[in-house]
TrEMBL record:
InterPro entries: G_GB1_RHD3_dom, P-loop_NTPase, RHD3/Sey1, Sey1/RHD3-like_3HB. Residues 40-281 form the GB1/RHD3-type G domain. It comes from Nadsonia fulvescens var. elongata DSM 6958. One of its GO terms (molecular function) is GTPase activity. It holds the Pfam family Sey1_3HB. This is Protein SEY1. It comes from the Eukaryota. Belongs to the TRAFAC class dynamin-like GTPase superfamily. GB1/RHD3 GTPase family. RHD3 subfamily. The lineage of its organism: Eukaryota, Fungi, Dikarya, Ascomycota, Saccharomycotina. It is a multi-pass membrane protein. Residues 1-718, 764-830 are cytoplasmic. The chain crosses the membrane at residues 721-739, 746-767. Residues 740-742 are lumenal. Residues 800-812 have a biased composition (Polar residues).
Length: 830
C-alpha cells in the first residue's frame, strides 16, 4: 500500500517538453533509467493541471515522492516550465498476510516487500502565469497533450476558487473540455478528472464543493460548441469526476500529510473503491512505444493538425511493430548465421549417417520460433490488426530465408535416408531375414526416419512441407527395390542354372551315345522337361506355373516375374547351345563318335568281343558296311532337326524378337572358332567342317582296314616240318631229363590236366582269341608309331589321331570328352 510517510528516495526527472515547446529526445533513455522500459502496458500516467504556484509540484512530491522543483516562498515566481515527467517512487507496504493459523505475522518487517511503482507523473506548467502573459497557446497545447497521454488529470485548485465561474480555473476547464471533444470523438477512452481542493478549511463540506464544481462543469459543458457530428454529447460520456480536499500544508502540516497519504492509496491500491487507474482510462500504448506516441502527439498538436487518438495508436503500433520486427530480424540473422555454420560443419563431417544431423531440424525450428518469440512478446501489445499484419510480414520474410535451408536439409535427409535404406537392407540380409522381409522392413524404417526428421524441422504450423521430397524418396526406394528384386531373380536363375547345366549335359551325352533319327526329339524333350522342372522349383507361389508366369518370391510385379522367366529361358537356351555346340557336337567329338561307331561294327563282333580276322573272312565287305553305317551319323550331328523335319528353336515361349536378342547376347568366346554365331542354332556344323570330319574319318577307317588286312596275312604263315624234326633231335636229352625229374614230371602232369580241362570245356578258341587280340594290339601300336614317323608328312601328330590312339588303348572309353566338359565348366566358372 502506498505510504507517503515512508517515501525515502528521489526520482529521476526528465523535461518532456521544454518551455520552447520542443519535445525531448531522451524519453526512452529516461524510461530505461527508471527501469520502466520493459513494463509493456503495465504502467500508468497521471498529470497535474492548475494555476501557477498553487502547490502542484508540492502535491506531486508529497503524493509520489518525486522531486519536482517547488517554488521558493521568497521569490514567488514560476518554477515549472514546460512539462516534466518523473517516476513515482513508492515504497509500498503490503497488507499483512494472515498466517496459516489465522494469526497475523508478528513482525512487520517479515511481511514488508518493496514494490516498484509503475506510475509516471507529469508536472505541467501552471496556467495564467505572468511569464507567458496572454499567450494561451502553450496552455491549450499542454492540456491537449496531457489528455492524450494521461489516464488521470489532477486539477489543482484553492478552495476559495471554487464557485468562481469567471475565474482562471474555469477557463482552464473549458480548454480541457474543448480539446477532449476533438480527441475522444469515438468515446473509446475516457479520462478521470480528479479535483484536489487545496487549503480546505473544512467549513464547507467537500460534498458541497463537489456539487458546486459539478454544476459549474455542466454549465461550461453546455456552453461549449460541440462538433456537428456529435448528437447531444454528455459530460459523463467523456469524463469521470472525482473530488478530494487537502488541508493547508503550512498551517495544518500533519493533516496535510495524512490527507496526501490517504489520497495516495487511491493511486496505488487497486482494492481501494476510489482507485483511479481504471482500465478504461489507459491509452493502450505499450511503454516502449510511448516515446514515439507522445512525440507524435505533440508534433500533431504543435502543427495544429487534427489529433485523434485511434489514428495515433495505429501509427505508434505500426512504428513500433516495425521496430520490433527489425530487432527480431537482427536476432534471426544472427541465429541464421549460427545455423548455417552448424549445417556446414555437419555437411563436411556427416559422410555417414549421424544422428546428430537431426539437430539441424530442431535448430531450424528454434531459429524461427526464437525470432518470433521476441516479436510476439513486444509487438502483441500494440493494436491487434497492426501486430498481426506485421507478424505475417516478418514470418514470411523469415520463412523465405529458412525455406532454402529447410529444402537443403530435406535434400540431405533424402540422401541419408536412401543410404540408410541400403544399409538397413544389407543388415537385414546378413541377419538372414530373407529377401522380402529385409527389403520391406528397410523401406518402412527408412520412411519413418525421413518423416520424423522432416516433421522435426517443419515447425508446428506445417509451413515447411516435404510432400515432394517424400514422393521422391518413395520413387527412389521403388527404383532400388526393383533393381534389388531383379538382381535377386538373376541370382535365383543363376543358382538354378548351375544345377541344371550338369544334368542337361549328362542327359544330352546319354542321348548322343546312340544317335539315331529321333535323337534331337529326345534331346529337345530333355531340355524342355529339365527347364520346366527347374522353373517349377523356383516358383514360390502355390499356384502352378502352367501359364508360364511364376512367382520368384521376391515381391516382384507380375511383369518382372515374367521377365525373370524369359531370362531363365534365355539362360537355359544359351547353356543348352553351349553344351551342344561347344561340347557334344564339336568337330573332334563328332569324329570320335563316328570312329567309335566304326570300331563297334568293324572290330568287335555282336557280342562285343574283338574280331580275329581269318583269311577266309570278307574283311572288305565288313569294313564298307561299318564305314557307311558310321557315316550315317554325321548328318545327325550336323543339323539339329526334329523327326518331323522341323528345326529346333529356343522354345515356344520365347518370342521371335527375343530369339534375335538372344543371338546378340550370346557369349561365344569359347567356340568362336566355329563362327556359329552367324548361323541359326540348327546349323551346328558347316559344310566345310562336315567334309573335314568325313575325310578324316575315312582316312582313319582306311588305316584300320589296312591293319586288319595285314594281320590276316601274317597269321596264315606256317612253320616248316623239318623245324619240328630238328627240335626233337636237338632237344631229346632235355625231354628225357624233364621226364626223369619228379618235379618236372609233376609239372607236366598238372599242365596236362589243365589242358584236358580246357579241352573238355571247349575254351581253347577263347584263349587263342584273347591271346591273338593281345598280340594284335601290341602290334597295332607299334605299327602306328612307325607309320606316324614314316608315312605322315606332318611333323606333329593330329589330335584326332591321338584320340584314336588313346581311345584304342583304353578300350574305347570316353575319357577325352569328359576332359573337355570339365575344362569347359572350369572356364565358365572363371
Ligand atoms: N497555502 C498553501 N501554500 C502551499 C501549499 N502547498 C505549497 N504551498 C506553497 O505554494 C508555493 C508554490 O508551490 P509550488 O508547489 O511550487 O507550486 P506550483 O503550482 O508547482 O508552482 P508552478 O510550478 O510555478 O506553477 C510554495 O511556496 C509552497 O510552499 C498549500 O497546501 N497551501
Amino acid at each position: 500500500m502506498f505510504s507517503p510517510s515512508s517515501l525515502d528516495s528521489h526520482s529521476d526527472i526528465v523535461q518532456l517538453i521544454d518551455e520552447s515547446k520542443n519535445f525531448s529526445t531522451s524519453i526512452n533513455d529516461f524510461l530505461h533509467k527508471v527501469k520502466l522500459n520493459g513494463a509493456g502496458l503495465d504502467y500508468h500516467i497521471v498529470s497535474v493541471f492548475g494555476s501557477q504556484s498553487t502547490g502542484k509540484s508540492t502535491l506531486l512530491n508529497a503524493l509520489f515522492n518525486t522531486d519536482f522543483d517547488v517554488m521558493s516562498e521568497i521569490k514567488r515566481q514560476q518554477t515549472t516550465k514546460g512539462i516534466w515527467m518523473a517516476r513515482a517512487q513508492t515504497s509500498s507496504r503490503l497488507l499483512k498476510q494472515p498466517s496459516p493459523d489465522g494469526e497475523e505475522a508478528s513482525s512487520e518487517e517479515d511481511t514488508t516487500t518493496d514494490q516498484e511503482s509503475k506510475i509516471l507523473v507529469m508536472d505541467v506548467e501552471g496556467t495564467d502565469g505572468r511569464e507567458r502573459g496572454d499567450d494561451q497557446d502553450f496552455e491549450r497545447k499542454s492540456a491537449l497533450f496531457a489528455l492524450a497521454t494521461s489516464e488521470v488529470i489532477i486539477i489543482n485548485i484553492w478552495e476559495h476558487q471554487v464557485g468562481l465561474y469567471q475565474g482562471a480555473n474555469m477557463a482552464l476547464l473549458k480548454t480541457v473540455f474543448e480539446v477532449n471533444l476533438s480527441l475522444f470523438k469515438d468515446h473509446q477512452s475516457k479520462s478521470l478528472i480528479l479535483f484536489v481542493i487545496r487549503d480546505h478549511i473544512g467549513v464547507t463540506p467537500l460534498s458541497n464543493l463537489s456539487n458546486t464544481l459539478t454544476a459549474d462543469l455542466n454549465r461550461i459543458w453546455e456552453s461549449l460548441s460541440k462538433p456537428a457530428d456529435m448528437v447531444d454529447p454528455k459530460l459523463d460520456e467523456f469524463f469521470d469526476l472525482q473530488f478530494t480536499a487537502l488541508p493547508h500544508k503550512i498551517l495544518q502540516p500533519e493533516q496535510f500529510s495524512s490527507g496526501t497519504s490517504n489520497l495516495g492509496t487511491r493511486f496505488t491500491d487497486p482494492d481501494n473503491s476510489e482507485y483511479v487507474f481504471k482500465k478504461k482510462y489507459h491509452r493502450n500504448v505499450p511503454i516502449d512505444g510511448w516515446s514515439f506516441y507522445a512525440g507524435n502527439v505533440w508534433q500533431q498538436i504543435e502543427l495544429n493538425k487534427d489529433l485523434d487518438l485511434p489514428t495515433q495508436q495505429i501509427l505508434v503500433a505500426r512504428f513500433r511493430c516495425d521496430e520490433i520486427a527489425n530487432q527480431s530480424w537482427d536476432l534471426f540473422e544472427q541465429e541464421l548465421l549460427e545455423l548455417k555454420k552448424h549445417i556446414d560443419a555437419k555437411l563436411q563431417s556427416d559422410k555417414e549417417i549421424d544422428e546428430n544431423f537431426l539437430t539441424v531440424g530442431n535448430l531450424i525450428k528454434h531459429t524461427r520460433s526464437s525470432a518470433m518469440l521476441v516479436f510476439d512478446e513486444f509487438a502483441s501489445k500494440y493494436a491487434k490488426a497492426v501486430y498481426e499484419t506485421k507478424r505475417k510480414e516478418l514470418l514470411s520474410r523469415i520463412d523465405s530465408e529458412l525455406i532454402n535451408i529447410y529444402k537443403n536439409h530435406l535434400t540431405k535427409l533424402l540422401k541419408l535416408s536412401l543410404v540408410r535404406f541400403e544399409t538397413k537392407f544389407a543388415e537385414n540380409l546378413s541377419k538372414n531375414l530373407g529377401f522380402l522381409v529385409s527389403i520391406d522392413s528397410s523401406e518402412l524404417t527408412t520412411k519413418e526416419f525421413f518423416l520424423s526428421n522432416a516433421n522435426n524441422a517443419s515447425a508446428d504450423d506445417g509451413v515447411f512441407v516435404f510432400d515432394d521430397e517424400f514422393t521422391t524418396l518413395d520413387e527412389e526406394i521403388n527404383k532400388i527395390k526393383a533393381i534389388r528384386r531383379n538382381n535377386e531373380i538373376s541370382k535365383i536363375i543363376s543358382r538354378a542354372m548351375k544345377k541344371i547345366k550338369p544334368v542337361l549335359s549328362e542327359k544330352i551325352k546319354d542321348v548322343f551315345k546312340n544317335p539315331n533319327e529321333d535323337t534331337w526329339d529326345r534331346i529337345y524333350d530333355e531340355f524342355n522337361s529339365i527347364s520346366q522342372m527347374a522353373l517349377s522349383r523356383m516358383n514360390s507361389s502355390t499356384i502352378t506355373c502352367d501359364t508360364g508366369v511364376i512367382d520368384f518370391g521376391v515381391g516382384a510385379y507380375v511383369e518382372d516375374n515374367q521377365k525373370g522367366v524369359l531370362e531363365f529361358k534365355k539362360q537355359a537356351w544359351i547353356n543348352f547351345e553351349k553344351i551342344i555346340k561347344g561340347d557334344v557336337c564339336r568337330p573332334e567329338n563328332v569324329l570320335n563318335r563316328l570312329l567309335e561307331r566304326f570300331d563297334e561294327l568293324f572290330r568287335f563282333d555282336e557280342n562285343g568281343a574283338p574280331i580275329v580276322w581269318k583269311p577266309s573272312d570278307n574283311i572288305e565287305a565288313v569294313y564298307l558296311k561299318a564305314k557307311n553305317n558310321a557315316l550315317l551319323l554325321l548328318p545327325i550331328f550336323c543339323e539339329a532337326k526334329l523327326k518331323d523335319g522341323t528345326r529346333i528353336t529356343p522354345g515356344v515361349s520365347i518370342a521371335e524378337e527375343e530369339e534375335d536378342n538372344l543371338k546378340n547376347e550370346r557369349d561365344f568366346n569359347d567356340f568362336d572358332l566355329f563362327e556359329i554365331e552367324k548361323r541359326p542354332f540348327s546349323a551346328i556344323l558347316t559344310d566345310k567342317q562336315k567334309e573335314e570330319i568325313s575325310n578324316k574319318f575315312k582316312k582313319q577307317c582306311d588305316l584300320l582296314y589296312i591293319e586288319s588286312k595285314r594281320s590276316t596275312i601274317q597269321s596264315i604263315t606256317q612253320i616248316p616240318i623239318y623245324v619240328y624234326a630238328l627240335i626233337i633231335i636237338l632237344g631229346w636229352n632235355e625231354f628225357m631229363a624233364i621226364l626223369r625229374n619228379p618235379v618236372y614230371t609233376l609239372f607236366l602232369l598238372l599242365a596236362g590236366g589243365g589242358a584236358y580241362i580246357i579241352h573238355s570245356l571247349k575254351l581253347w578258341s577263347v584263349i587263342i582269341n584273347v591271346t591273338d587280340a593281345m598280340f594284335l594290339r601290341v602290334k597295332d601300336m607299334a605299327v602306328e608309331k612307325l607309320q606316324d614317323m614314316a608315312v605322315n608328312s606332318d611333323t606333329k601328330k593330329s589330335p584326332i589321331r591321338q584320340q584314336v590312339s588313346v581311345r584304342a588303348s583304353s578300350g574305347g572309353s570316353d575319357h577325352y570328352s569328359d576332359n573337355i566338359e570339365l575344362d569347359d565348366f572350369n572356364e565358365q566358372e572363371n
